[in-house]
Amino acid sequence: MIVTRFAPSPTGRLHLGHAFSAVSGHARALESGGRFLLRIDDLDQGRSRPEFVDGIYEDMEWLGLHWDEPVLVQSQRTDDYGAALDRLRERGLVYACFCTRADIAQSMAAPHGDAAASYPGTCRPLHDNPERRAKTPHSWRLDSAKALEIAGLPSWTETDGGRFDADASQIGDVILARKDAPASYHLSCVVDDAASGVTMVVRGADLRPSTPTQRLLQVLLDLPEPTYRHHPLVTHKDGRRLAKRDLAPTLAAMREGGVDGIRLARDLLAEKLPLVSHFATSRAGP
Ligand code: GLU
């Protein structure tokens, strides 16, 4: 019995890529007689909006996708994330970081710096200083070197691709919490997937790079290991990926344009992607 979840962030209206994730996850769960869950990833309070939460429910309804209750709303679960962070802190696996975005950007701009590199660890050697923490905005980062020493390199299973071993370069000192965000995506995601009994994470291939870090956190927090299906992204006809900022056609616009949601869900399930991406292009607007 497979338990999957769809976990959109209510920072805009859903587009075809989201629909593909939701439809795929829903089908995997139902085929196995399992459960399909919905989670609202609204920890980014600066960008999350109640009207986008309503939009998620409307779009799911239109696609004919029903979910098992309860819906997990991340902004209501901050105690659980705090408890997970405490467990990591007690084991000396996190440190306070006082760097601003500008500090980090500057250190990354060093002549031999790799633009894609993760945080350089500037604050890692600092001793904990509660007084400074009380006065200065800071975040909490994973001490990835220590974490890897304890847990070893994580691995994971892709449902369509076998077993993968993470590479140490894929795991950095990621942020786990900030003053304005009680948990990062990585931390909240693993805590919630475990709390709701998710056994298969179905999401777009753009989130595959998150998997090594999330698997490491699962090992450190002693959480069960789900399998992963990172599905291909729905693209425009010219291969560009759909993105909210890119005026991708929203499901709401398609609905208003007279598209049948149930039929669209069926086409997505059959992975009729050329048809879908053609459709996307022809309705994409400017
Ligand atoms: N909330 C994330 C997003 O909308 C997805 C999280 C996940 O599926 O792991 O991109």
TrEMBL record:
It is an enzyme of class 6 (ligase). Keywords: Aminoacyl-tRNA synthetase, ATP-binding, Ligase, Metal-binding, Nucleotide-binding, Protein biosynthesis, Zinc. It holds the Pfam family tRNA-synt_1c. Residues 2-250 form the Glutamyl/glutaminyl-tRNA synthetase class Ib catalytic domain. InterPro entries: aa-tRNA-synth_I_CS, Glu/Gln-tRNA-synth, Glu/Gln-tRNA-synth_Ib_cat-dom, GluQ/Sye, Rossmann-like_a/b/a_fold. One of its GO terms (molecular function) is ligase activity. It comes from the Bacteria. Its EC number is 6.1.1.-. Belongs to the class-I aminoacyl-tRNA synthetase family. PANTHER family: GLUTAMATE--TRNA LIGASE, GLUTAMYL-Q TRNA(ASP) SYNTHETASE. This is tRNA glutamyl-Q(34) synthetase GluQRS.
